[in-house]
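Continuing the series of single-chain predictions for the mutant panel. This is the parent chain; the variants come on the following pages.
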Amino acid sequence: MPSGPTSFARTSENPPTAHLGHYKLTSLGAVDEAAALVARVLPALRMAEAREFVATLASLAGSLWQIANPAPALAELYASDPALAQACVDLAPRLRRTAEILLAGLKAAGDQGQSS
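Parent structure:
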């Protein structure tokens, strides 16, 4: 097997399926655990909605973490130009606001489904 960046790319693009299966099952289990907590605290949400909420917020958190914690060179660039400062977000308030919007939408969608 060749070594170097090319072989690494192939390995990371095609990881062993056993590892993927374990990772996915672990991830899905964590989502289900968090969704059960959300459903317990917000009984207006069905379990499927709570699962959708958790999965969506977790996915967004991963993306926003990268934006909120830029590499040093990007952080310097953002700090040097006020027009670019808005490119870096404050993670917790952004996630909180997004969670509120998502919950409001899930509640509205659930209310519409119940009236039909």
